[in-house]
Amino acid sequence: MVYLDNAASTLPAPEVREALARALLELPANPASAHGAGAAAARALETARAEVAGLLRGGPAELVFTSGGTEADALGVLGAAGAARGRHLVVTAIEHPAVLRNAERLAARGFTLTVVPPSGSGCVSAERVLAAVGPETAVVAVMLVNNELGTVQPVAEIARGLRAAGRKAHLHVDAVQAAGVLPIDARALGADSIAISAHKLHGPKGAGALWVRPGARLDPLWDGGRQERGHRSGTENVPAFVAFGRAAVLCRAGQAGEAIAARRDELEARVWEAVPQARPTVAGSPRAPHIASVLLPDLPAEPILHALEARGVFASAGSACASRTRGPSHVLAALGIDDRAAVLRFSLSRLTTSDEVAAAATALREAVEEIRPMARQARGRR
Amino acid sequence: MAAILCRFGEIFLKGGNRGRFERALADNVRTAVGGLPDARVSTPHGRVLVTLRDADLEEGCDRVGRVFGLVSYSPTITVPTEMAAITAAALAGARAALARDPACARSFRIEARRSDKRFPLSSPEIGREVGGRIAQATGVPVDLENPALTIGVEIGLEAAYVYSETRPGPGGLPVGISGRGLLLLSGGIDSPVAGWLAAKRGLALDALYFHSPPFVGEKSRDKVVALARELARWQAVRSLHVAPFTDCQKRVREAGPAELAVVLYRRMMMRVADLVAERVGASSLVTGENLGQVASQTVPNMTVIEQAARRLVLRPLVTYDKMETTALARRIGTFDTSALPYDDCCSLFVPAHPATAARLVDAERAEQRLDVAAEAAAVAGAAEEIRL
Questions:
Q1: Chain A contact for B219 (CB, 8 A cutoff)
Q2: Is B77:B89 a contact under the CB 8 Å cutoff?
Q3: pLDDT, tens digit, for every residue of A191-226?
Q4: CA-based angle B108:B114:B116, to the nearest 5?
Q5: What is the DSSP letter of B55?
Q6: What is the mean pLDDT of residues A66-94?
Q7: Interface contact A378-B348, CB threshold 8 A
Q8: Rounded CA gap, B206 and B280, in Å?
Q9: In this structure, are residues A176 and A51 in contact, taking their beta carbons and an 8 Å threshold?
Q10: What is the distance between the alpha carbons of residues A2 and B381, in angstroms, rounded to a whole number?
Q11: Does the active-site annotation cover A251?
Q12: Element (H, E) at A114
């Protein structure tokens, strides 16, 4: 199996699997319990918190564990909006649904929502975002790395601009696709909250975190036992967070970004060679190391994916019209990508090998050759 | 013990088919409640009666509510055929109904039915006596014309049955009474509904799905299996046959012009369906086709497609609006699965301008480049059967 769908989910590292299994076995107590078993669970949880915070060069007191990236985004956006006085939101058009749909929910409750479109290169401009922000703006949400294209958004520049203009808006950053492949320094980035997810960096599913700048105000999404310093009620998923901590330490030790980028460049070079009609979906923007977005004109994405799968290569589609029922990708639509083109996302990890990217390029050539005759003139589907 | 009193339409009680109808219905009810411990099905006095444990009453009702041929059914308390027990049960039923729906306090009546003519009171006398007690105890007035609540009392040979609630059944005819058909099932919204409607008219079904990897993925297949399972809950479908269609589809696509592709695919599907129907003993084919829903679903195209089939092609949805079909899909429980975003082989590779008035000569000319009988036999022969 050549697994090139790491932006969807990564393979849990062996150390992570081991840490998860061991914590399930050895840390059965509730970390809030007064007895020694509870204390052991609480200690493990705090160690994990420091480890995950370390991935963002933050302190443990700044980290709220969540059930995943979506909850972290929801807490960042809904929580900050709930705590703020202003009734205006600014988001980019290429945010993940975890941000976009929650912003739309706020809009349905009376917030004004400004959606900033990207340029054709798959990035929003800092000026356009800043121009949309006013004194009434409660939350600005900008992702660090776009999940479909891998493009890096100018978050630090936006943060500086907000400060320079004296804006009070909360800057929420969805860093789910960045953490583990790009170095992140939460303070230097200038964000008020940063969402990350464990299973995107070889950790388990069902675990995420929101880094919160000290002093930033967030309303909790719900109330209850007031764990996580009141930000997130509910008994902590200790085994998953312990495993998350393990995964974070491995990421830091790995410093894998450059190696992954080199592998991605190799994949792209081979794809352009093997499939002459293929081209990069976007060009000219800074990119995260692990995502290659490939555009194939006049082909349906989904059959190509399944043809790749038949050859042992697993990837994802990001086509504007991958299928009739799935509907267009809002990201590709925002970029004005031709909806008759297949847009494929190959996403790598530090485990991806040179042989694998070579095999993927060959499989893509064969897949295109298989599907093209069927797809001839099969266009403009409604 | 609790019981469910199931009713079937008066219309079927007449004529020579009554016995066959009753037996099929009782068999299907028996299948529906199969697996519930101690559940027993009998057919006393023109009813189908399910006796079962008290704790299984709601589950039993849910299952019985999916048996075609039933007009209505009532969850029922079983008591000895004595007036004291009957009156007490009726009063308890009235109080339960009032708690469930306070609007019942407007008025009520007793609907008594006496199958055991040895019972000392006549039906009107039972009604008067039980009704009088309930009116006295609850203060709810009697209204024989337009009651808000109807309490039923049926006196059988072995027991009396008292109920305060009548729920509508799905109607139709018992599955199997109209023979066996083969449903061409895709992952869309329409074909499961078409199958449900055919089963509602008494047709027992097997299903056939054309799977085209790699054009569609495993999830498309899983989705169709889930739809077939949903239909099986209505006893509509017995088995699903998954026919690998890819290679055949490629050759069919090569054989003719792009605008004719949909018609040629579907003609090939008809031939395969005939072969699978032969194997399962089905004498008709059922499709989700609809007049004008997509560009290729025209009368001329359907005519050309149908001529590839040897069996009668039934199209229960042919005149339905999409909204009507969708509403029915929601009601029968297939919509959420159908709405999953996984395509079937028909929805991919539809040409921009499909032929709307295909001609048989053109289809046959394209098919001369193929050995259609051998192609169909290969697809049908490779079909995998999934028992539901």
A1: no
A2: yes
A3: 999 999 999 999 999 999 999 999 999 999 999 999
A4: 155
A5: G
A6: 97
A7: yes
A8: 7
A9: no
A10: 33
A11: no
A12: strand A112-116
b vs e for B323-346, b when ≥16 Cβ sit within 10 Å of the residue's Cβ?
eebbebbeebbbbebbeeebbbbb
Nearest-5° Cα angle at B290, B285 to B296: 100
CB A367 within 8 A of CB A274: no
Higher pLDDT, B217 or A40: A40
Inspect the interface and report whether the beta carbons of B341 and A300 lie closer than 8 Å: no
Scan for tokens 């042989």, then name that residue: A355
Q: Residue B370 in 3-state DSSP?
A: coil
**B355 pLDDT tier (thresholds 50, 70, 90):** confident
The one-letter amino acid code at B355 reads: A
Phi, psi at B234, each rounded to 5°: -95, 10
Going by the DSSP 8-state scheme, the letter that residue A319 receives in this structure is -
SS3 content of chain A, % helix, strand, coil (to 5): 45, 15, 40
Q: Which residue has the tokens 């605008």?
A: B259
Q: Is A134 helix (H, G, I), strand (E, B) or coil?
A: coil
**Share above pLDDT 70 across residues of chain B, in percent, rounded to a whole number:** 96
- Selected for mutation to probe chain B from A319, A323, A325 (highest B CB count within 10 Å) is A325
Q: Which of B258, B341, B348 sits opposite A303 (nearest CB)?
A: B348
Interchain contact, A378 vs B352, CB within 8 Å: yes
From the list A196, A321, A363, A364, the catalytic residue is A321
| Predicted complex ipTM exceeds 0.85 | no
**B249 and chain A in contact, CB less than 8 A:** yes
Contact list, B254 vs chain A (CB under 8 Å): 373
SS3 A125: coil
Amino acid at B60: G
Cα–Cα dist A5/A35, whole Å? 43
Specify the pLDDT at position A381. 38
* Interchain contact, B253 vs A373, CB within 8 Å: yes
pTM as predicted: 0.83
Q: What percent of chain A has pLDDT over 70?
A: 95
What rounded mean pLDDT belongs to chain B?
91
pLDDT digits (tens, 9 = 90+) for B225-234: 999 999 999 9
In which element (H, E) is residue B209 found?
A: strand B204-211
